[in-house]
Automatic annotation (TrEMBL):
UniProt-recorded name of the protein: DUF485 domain-containing protein
Keyword hit for 4Fe-4S: no
Transmembrane segments: 25-43, 63-82
Keywords per UniProt: Membrane, Transmembrane, Transmembrane helix
Organism domain of life: Bacteria
PANTHER family: INNER MEMBRANE PROTEIN YJCH (PTHR38598)
Cellular component aspect of the GO annotation: plasma membrane
Amino acid sequence: MEPSVVQQVKNDPNYRKLVKTRSRYGWMLTWAVMIMYYGFTALNAFDKEFMAAKIGDGVMSRGVPLGLFVILFTVAVTAIYVRRANREFDMLTDAIHRSVGQHTGTGAKAGHAAEVGQ
């Protein structure tokens, strides 16, 4: 990519919005997952009686459903990120392609490449 095109992309307000929003959102979800994982691990390490306590009259301990919840939470967080990325972040990326393409005269080519995934 030519340096002038890179500079145009960096100067595009949609690019700055995309980078700022995606970064903040990604870190927020990362912290949520880290708190969940480390909380589960800390609970296992420091409160074994709580995790080993049986649920009802069965043989299942509290740790099993909590572990399943951690896994499902991670899957849900991933789905939430993908949904927003497919809606908002892809629209901003397309707007950047169109904006830079208008200035360089390659808008149709860049837009077509984005559609076919190149």
